[in-house]
Specification:
single chain, 434 residues, alpha/beta, eleven-stranded mixed β-sheet, globular
Length: 434
């Protein structure tokens, strides 16, 4: 069944006014129009579509989304890494220079506002923006392509190494607004960087970010995405990844906030001896929904990929994991693993898991698996038999389950901060008796 028709008039009027207000190259305007036309053609997703059957957007569809306004915020509401870092902050999708700080960079390296760089050096942006395959059937990626106003731009030249983490903060504030930030990260041959992207906010809003990550031959990117949106917010994001030979991508997707949070990630491993690690952790409570859709495409031989996604669910929360490993016919000697594990802290919680393999080559090592269950009663009895109170025993078991994902994060200040956030959640004592 086709998608629901878009309430076209409000979006059309907004788009017409938005494009008229922009001063940018014709190629960017053309790509905006293509994105908007794609959004209209795709329509509003419904549960009748296979890719959206577990994602209920009825509450979002009732909101008359408007363009955000500039709102001053207190710097104290923004997260920190407790370590020296390059920092770019954005409020309602627009660069906030007073809340940002850049340190010394390698020669010819660029970390900047995407919107400002487009005005001053469009030749830096045009060759890369909207050039990666993937997300073609994602209506909110199309909406982002039409309405993005600003975002972060990172370009590292050949062999450049940025030692300090690059901290990108996107803060949304307001009700009934749509925010469409953009990330464009380009690492040339042999470049290395650690990037932390954080989404937070206040109010009832839609945040629909898109990140495009391009890794040249031998490049190394440690990418962290932390979603802690407002409890009333909708986060519907997309990530495109293109890796060339010998490159290494270590990505960590952590989701704590939002009424509904969904990430669609598509990775093309376009070369030999590529490694891609996708690590995810969702902690959801009450009626929250966390949704991850992954597609990893092995296009050449001798590549390897690993997916480990874990969820901790309480109350009436739901999670969705839909992962695909696609191995092309000539991508021999591929090694790929996919694992989804879900821990239910309530009998009313629900985890939907759909790990998939599509293998066209005949000399590969690939596997997948999924498990969903309650706390181990034997482990709980073991702890209680040693004098540990029942609530503390449950918290210890949950912490151990989630810590496996957190331990994969090599950036120590971030790993410790996330572990503390998880411990604070568990200290609330809200795990139900099972």
């Amino acid at each position: 069944m086709n998608a629901a028709p878009v309430a076209q008039n409000p979006f059309r009027q907004q788009f017409k006014a938005f494009v008229a207000s922009r001063r940018e190259p014709d190629t960017i305007t053309r790509r905006r129009r293509e994105g908007f036309d794609r959004f209209i053609a795709l329509g509003w997703p419904t549960h009748h579509q296979e890719a959206w059957r577990f994602t209920d957007l009825s509450a979002l569809a009732q909101i008359d989304l408007q363009r955000p306004t500039n709102v001053p915020i207190d710097a104290n509401v923004l997260p920190t890494l407790n370590a020296p870092a390059h920092r770019l902050s954005f409020v309602n999708g627009c660069f906030a220079p007073a809340l940002s700080q850049l340190r010394g960079l390698p020669n010819q390296a660029i970390i900047a506002s995407l919107g400002q760089a487009l005005l001053t050096h469009p030749d830096w942006i045009e060759p890369y923006l909207e050039q990666l395959p993937g997300l073609s059937q994602h209506p909110f990626a199309a909406l982002n392509a039409a309405f993005w106003e600003d975002g972060a731009f990172l370009h590292l030249p050949r062999a450049a190494v940025v030692e300090a983490p690059i901290h990108l903060i996107f803060y949304s504030i307001g009700d009934h607004i749509g925010v469409y930030p953009r990330l464009l990260l380009v690492l040339d041959e042999g470049a290395q960087a650690t990037v932390v992207v954080e989404y937070r906010g206040e109010g009832r809003y839609l945040n629909a970010p898109v990140a495009e990550l391009q890794l040249g031959a031998g490049a190394v990117l440690n990418y962290h995405q932390i979603q802690e949106e407002s409890p009333q917010a909708f986060h519907l994001g997309g990530i495109r990844i293109h890796q060339q030979r010998d490159s290494q991508m270590n990505s960590h997707l952590v989701s704590f906030g939002g009424q509904l949070a969904r990430v669609d990630l598509e990775a093309l491993l376009d070369g030999e001896h590529i490694h891609s690690m996708l690590n995810g952790l969702s902690v959801v409570d009450h009626t929250q929904v966390s949704d991850h859709h992954l597609w990893v495409d092995h296009a050449d031989p001798y590549g390897s990929s690993e997916q480990l996604f874990k969820s901790v669910l309480n109350g009436k929360a739901r999670t969705v994991f839909d992962g695909m490993i696609h191995v092309r016919q000539h991508a021999q000697k591929t090694e790929a693993r996919q694992l989804n594990r879900n821990l239910l802290l309530s009998r009313q919680a629900q985890a939907n898991s759909n790990p998939r393999l599509e293998i066209l080559a005949d000399d590969v090592k690939c596997g997948h698996g999924s498990s969903t269950g309650l706390l181990d009663p034997d482990a709980l009895f073991y702890l209680r038999a040693r004098g540990i109170p029942v609530e503390q025993a449950r918290a210890l078991l949950v912490q151990a389950f989630a810590q496996d994902s957190l331990n994969r994060i090599s950036l120590t200040p971030l790993r410790e901060r996330l572990a503390n956030s998880l411990a604070h959640y568990l200290a609330l004592g809200c795990i139900e008796e099972q």
